[in-house]
Design a protein that fits this description.
By secondary structure, this protein is an all-alpha fold. The chain is about 40% helix and about 0% strand. The protein has a domain of about 35 residues. The protein is elongated.
């Protein structure tokens, strides 16, 4: 069993009424019951869903490729062969 420290905990206060910025304990209990988990787990699941929706899921890159990086890519990929992919997902008008 893990020991709990106050350093990794926060005070969580339910709202007196449901609103865009919070929920009542009754709503949290109903949601937990619907999900089949306890209130703490329901809060964690809600926060995880919000994190996935709002936070970037990857680290930002350094921007555009350098000339040297493009040269390395072209060196590893055979050049001079034209390839195309035909898709039936889109209607293509022919002239």
């Amino acid at each position: 069993m893990t020991t709990r420290t106050t350093a990794n905990q926060i005070a969580f206060r339910y709202r007196p009424v449901d609103s865009a910025t919070g929920v009542t304990r009754e709503t949290a209990q109903r949601l937990a019951g619907y999900l089949g988990v306890d209130e703490t787990q329901a809060i964690h699941q809600a926060l995880r869903e919000l994190a996935i929706k709002l936070l970037p899921q990857y680290e930002a890159d350094d921007g555009s490729l350098t000339v040297a990086q493009v040269r390395q890519i072209k060196k590893r990929i055979p050049q001079g062969t034209k390839r195309s992919v035909r898709s039936s997902l889109f209607q293509v008008e022919t002239a």
